[in-house]
């Protein structure tokens, strides 16, 4: 090989090595590659990034690959995420995307990008983070004895603990998604046309599955007209629910989860009409005329910001002492 050829090969090799070293100074490292979380919850996606010395970062943002078409759109400018996205960063080049009130339509691959003050100084972290958003559903299988499973469309991240509610009352906790009958020590429930079941995950007790009946469609359960309400301070609000079941309601009562007591993870509701914080501001306008079936309405007047909370309806029937309507209605006063 001639000295000219040898010099050319060496030059190409050194040039290639230089390119690799320069590229190696650009990097985005994500804290996870995939995550599965509950609809209605909040998620944080984090990464760290680096770039060559001599550059200055002028812009950082996250985007989803759903609608980019080669032109990334900052999530904070995306109408689908308006009011639900915030960014957090620190001096160690760590950047976090926070999405609140997650929807199943948010399921996508998310990527981080940063731009520097040098020509061509934009970098996108590949491959990104795959976010899956799922709701909870109770699946009922079997004959006279039935198994109940709290289903999701993807395996929830973080080894969740499942919480089961019978007729709206908090009950068993289990590391597996199957309902466990503590009385009979078995993963089955006996036939009971009045009984309804729902499940949630510990740490997200406000994000329940829809209520299901073990038998038929007329088990005791409560449906709220609205799951979320946002109203102005000083105004009034009506929170309404209806009851479905084989028995008439007795002892109807509205309560707030914040103002009620807890003992051994059991919620003991406090009647809002006896709460000094609501004195003179709470009415049950249709309680007497509709006390057997509903609809049942809670009216709160002269609203205050501290009234922001989840409100639930509880009741008794001739078959059981207390049933709860889950999930309730979340009120935000602003």
Summarize the structure in short:
The protein has one helix and 27 strands.
Describe this structure in words.
- The chain has 3 domains: 27-133, Immunoglobulins (Immunoglobulin-like); 135-219, Sandwich (Immunoglobulin-like), CATH 2.60.40; 221-334, Immunoglobulins (Immunoglobulin-like).
- The protein is built from 1 helix and 27 strands.
- The chain has one helix at residues 3-24; strands at residues 27-30, 34-38, 43-50, 57-64, 85-89, 94-99, 108-116, 122-124, 129-134, 137-142, 145-151, 162-166, 169-174, 189-190, 196-201, 212-213, 221-224, 228-231, 237-244, 250-256, 261-263, 266-268, 282-283, 296-300, 309-316, 323-324, 329-333.
- Mean pLDDT is 81; it is low at 1-23.
List the helices and strands and how they pair.
Layout: H1 3-24, E1 27-30, E2 34-38, E3 43-50, E4 57-64, E5 85-89, E6 94-99, E7 108-116, E8 122-124, E9 129-134, E10 137-142, E11 145-151, E12 162-166, E13 169-174, E14 189-190, E15 196-201, E16 212-213, E17 221-224, E18 228-231, E19 237-244, E20 250-256, E21 261-263, E22 266-268, E23 282-283, E24 296-300, E25 309-316, E26 323-324, E27 329-333
Parallel strand pairs: 2-9, 18-27
Antiparallel strand pairs: 1-3, 3-6, 4-7, 5-6, 7-8, 7-9, 10-11, 11-14, 12-13, 12-15, 15-16, 17-19, 19-24, 20-25, 21-22, 23-24, 25-26, 25-27
